[in-house]
Amino acid sequence: MKFSRRNLIKSFAALGSVGFSTRVLAQDKPNPNNLPPNLPEWTPDLGAGVDENPYGSPSEFESNVIRRNVPWLTASPQSSVNFTPLQDLEGIVTPNGLCFERHHGGVAEINPTDYRLMINGLVDREMIFSLDDLKRFPQVNKFYFLECAANGGMEWKGAQLNGCQYTFGMVHNVQYTGVKLSDLLRETGLKPKAKWVLAEGSDTSGMTRSIPIEKILDDCLIAWAMNGEALRPEQGYPARLVVPGWEGNMWVKWIRRLEFGDKPYMTREETSKYTDLLTDGKARMFTWVMEAKSVVTSPSPEKPILHKGIQQLRGLAWSGKGKIKRVDVSLDGGKNWRTAQLHAPIMSKSLVRFTLPFEWSGEELLIQSRAIDETGYVQPYIQELQKIRGKNSIYHNNSIATWLVSKSGKVDNVRLG
Ligand SMILES: Nc1nc2c(c(=O)[nH]1)N[C@H]1C(S)=C(S)[C@@H](COP(=O)(O)O)O[C@H]1N2
Ligand SMILES: [Mo]
Question: Cα of 171 to ligand 2 centre, how many Å?
Answer without folding.
Answer: 10
